[in-house]
Amino acid sequence: MKDFIIPDPDFGTPARRSDKTVTLTIDGFEVTVPEGTSVMRAAAELGIEIPKLCATDSVEPIGSCRLCLVEIEGRRGTPASCTTPVADGMQVHTQTPKVAKLRRGVMELYISDHPLDCLTCAANGDCQLQDMAGAVGLRDVRYEAGANHFETRQNGEANPRYIEKDASNPYFTYDPSKCIACYRCVRACEEVQGTFALTVDGRGFEARISTGHDDFLGSDCVSCGACVQACPTATLQEKSVIEMGTPDRAVVTTCAYCGVGCSFRAEMKGDQLVRMVPSKDGKANRGHSCVKGRFAYGYATHPDRILNPMIRESIDQPWREVTWEEAFEFTARKFRGIQEKHGVRAIGGITSSRCTNEETFLVQKLIRQVFGNNNVDTCARVCHSPTGYGLKTTLGTSAGTQDFDSVEHADVVLIIGANPTDGHPVFASRLKKRLRQGAQLIVADPRRIDLVRGPHVRAAHHLPLRPGTNVALLTAMAHVIVAEGLTYDDFIRERCEMDAYQDWAGFVAEDRHSPEATEALTGVPAEEVRKAARLYATGGNAAIYYGLGVTEHSQGSTTVMAIANLAMATGNIGRPGVGVNPLRGQNNVQGSCDMGSFPHELPGYRHVHDDAARGLYEKLWNVTISDEPGLRIPNMLDAAVGGTFKGIYIQGEDILQSDPDTKHVASGLAAMDCVVVHDLFLNETANYAHVFLPGSTFLEKDGTFTNAERRINRVRRVMAPLNGLADWEVTQHLANAMGAGWTYAHPAEIMAEIAATTPSFAGVSYDLLEAEGSVQWPCNDAAPRGTPVMHEGGFVRGKGLFVVTDYVPTDERTGPRYPLLLTTGRILSQYNVGAQTRRTGNTVWHAEDVLEIHPHDAETRGISEGDWVRLASRSGETTLRATLSDRVSPGVVYTTFHHPETQANVVTSDYSDWATNCPEYKVTAVQVALTNGPSDWQLSYAERARAARRILPAAE
Amino acid sequence: MTPEKLVYMANQIATAFARLPEDAAVAAIADHIDAFWDPRMRAHLLDLVEAGAPDLSPRVAAAAGRIRKPEAA
Ligand code: SF4
Ligand code: SF4
Ligand code: SF4
Ligand code: FES
Question: What sequence ranges are listed for the domain 2Fe-2S ferredoxin-type (chain A) (predicted)?
Answer without folding.
Answer: 20-98
